Amino acid sequence: MSRKQNHDQQFSLDLNEAPASEVQQASRAADVSPAPVDAATPFSGLAQMEELLTQWQEAGWVRPLDREFARLIRTLCQEQGEQPEPLLILLAALASHQVGRGHVCVHLNTLLEEPARTLALPPEEAAGTGPEPTPLPTPADLMARFAPEDCYQVLENSLAVSDGSQSTPLVLDSGRLYLRRFWRYEQRIAESIRQRLEQPSDLDDPALPQGETLRQALGELFRPQPEVDYQKLACALAARNRFAVITGGPGTGKTTTVVNLLAALQAVAGTSPQRQARKYRIRLAAPTGKAAARLNESIGGAVSRLPLAALPGNVQQADIPTRVTTLHRLLGSRPDSRQFRHHRDNPLLVDILVIDEASMVDVDLMASVMDALPASAHLILLGDKDQLASVDAGAVLGELCRRALAAHYTPETAEWLAALTGDRVPETLVDNAGQPMDQAVAMLRKSYRFTEDSGIRQLAQAVNSNTLHRNTLAGLGRGEFNDVTMLPCGPTPEDTRALICRHALTGSPEAFSNQGLGRTLNGQALPPPVGYQHYLNLMQDHDLDADSLREDWDQLARQVLSAFGDFQVLCALRQGPWGVEGLNDLIARELTARGLIPKAEGWYRGRPVLVTGNDYNLGLMNGDIGITFSLPWGQHENGQPCETLRVAFPASDGSNDIRWISPSRLQHLETVFAMTVHKSQGSEFNHTCLILPDRLSPVMTRELVYTGITRARNWFSLIAGDETVLLESVAQQVVRASGLAERLWC
Ligand SMILES: Nc1ncnc2c1ncn2[C@@H]1O[C@H](COP(=O)(O)OP(=O)(O)OP(=O)(O)O)[C@@H](O)[C@H]1O
User: Fold this and answer.
1) Whose alpha carbon is nearest atom 4 of ligand 1?
2) What is the helix, strand, coil percentage profile of the chain, to 5?
3) Which domains are seen in the chain, by residue range?
4) Which of 95, 158, 197, 455 is most buried, taking the most CB atoms under 10 A from its CB?
5) ipTM higher than threshold 0.90
6) How far is the CA of 446 from the centre of ligand 1 (A)?
7) From ligand 1's centre to the CA of 104, what distance in Å?
8) What is the pTM of this model?
């Protein structure tokens, strides 16, 4: 038997799912030898390479997990009689390191061409401290010794690596090195999409009755327009395919479009002899509780405005759900397990699944969705392709939308769309060589939330197209737009801190060219920009007491939570004076000094908290926001009522209920006067203030700045520690290594 043939038995253990105890045992088995002195030393033996990995880990360059993964590969190779090359151990650690940074794999050629940039090693220090010189050999020093062929040879000769056809812990596929688990996720996602795209549709022939029903329904749902109606085109495309993506910037009508789409599909189902007029079972989901709650808020109104009576198929309001659940709840997550209740052998009972804010879904969760979805079900992803990618590995929506701007619809698709919608796709979006995946992606191109002259819209566009210039920023400073302001940092750090404090307190309406007054949208007056004193005043100015009813407290909590959502400080970093930790502390101290909160540490009345991990027992999801109240519900030993702290959370089921939770029961949370842009995904605020530091860091990218700006519904303020850093951030783009797009487009 050849070495490779025996793989399945040898490596039946999936290393990335290995229990911690095994990892620790492997770790303890390692020898340690003297520190390496140059880039050649780690290649003189396994112990030397492992010692370097330990030093990298101690320096904070790689995670303990990365080092342990490399050691486990070494142990497993040795157990099979292979003496692994130090280069193999190094590549294993680097592949694991890249997963920790959101990549699905490592492109070997890119790694060799640009090791420092690809790996972001050595890491830059947190803003404010500057990079420290280090005597450690860097990955770039090490990789400079090798050509791609050397890496391929070492990987191909190892029992720990295969092309995926065998159960090895590492997979080398088309020049990409994967941890096996991530390779499998990518495979499963691509397979599921391809399988859905290959299924013929009843709607393929516009002349057949189903096509005619769809045409009629679209005619009722969309008013005729002088220009191409991209929402109508998106509905038609998504109705035809069992897999579809609808992408668009803020306010381009993703929710409106999907509601129309679901109504149109129910009309088709209601007239379909094959379905015997049985309507589709539809579920709506979002990756976080916050995103689910936001869709909950907007979808009910959109459904109630549907012209149902005019549609064929006897579509009723109840045929279109308005309750949105989190993906974890939908799939049935179980405490302390990464396995969901719904999977291939216990699929979801659903005909159409819509996932909003799909940019936040990582490869692991997306693969679980694909597994749990019956092969015949429609999957519709909604999201903004230009937003930040998921926190965990992958950039699934970004990859699926990578050709969305130019569309690449085939002439056949363009003809079909014209027959169904009456709209002709512009020639620039038609491509004879368009591929099946292109035909399932629709991009909404017109914003209905922002007017043409909106500063938020123009700033977001300039960032997205990398055309943000100093004169745009100067224009913001001069008050060229009445919905955006740029607040100038002071000459000293104290001045800047004072500016941030003033702004966080009041929202600085005077800094906007119209003094924050008089803005209207679609004839509706918009509330002016506010800061945190707005919700804290509301908390203080009430006349509830121990005799008040629970309902009255619930009502107050709803008002306070809504007022808190009127303003949010966002930042790029976690640590340092410009990060969440520094800003939370700064703002809390200012509010204490103003008598708006009693103290700045621990638990106190008015403390806003962000849940940072799912807690199924309490029914709280990552991203939920609560506000701490002091309630007269406690009791002294003598029976007298006393104040007790409770955190008010809005129920995540769209019921408008309030849950009061004791602080001692809350485990994963942080104060949220400041929030990272990453955590703000899926949320929107009436007034958003984005604070960017005075030093560039790898996390500061175009996607981050764009996501920060587009969290603002009506007012946006910017505090940039250094304009050059802002411009440089916009020039930096997130590119996550993955092979998904290559699997879907040949
Ligand atoms: N075709 C349209 N004509 C007029 N108004 C529209 C149209 N489509 C959407 N709108 C309005 O634009 C606003 C934003 O629409 P919608 O909520 O559907 O967009 P979205 O892309 O889902 O927004 P978000 O950025 O919050 O995800 C809503 O007030 C909606 O009623």
Assistant:
1) 448
2) 40, 15, 40
3) 46-122+134-179 (1.10.10.1020), 204-448 (3.40.50.300), 455-611+669-731 (3.40.50.300)
4) 95
5) yes
6) 10
7) 33
8) 0.88
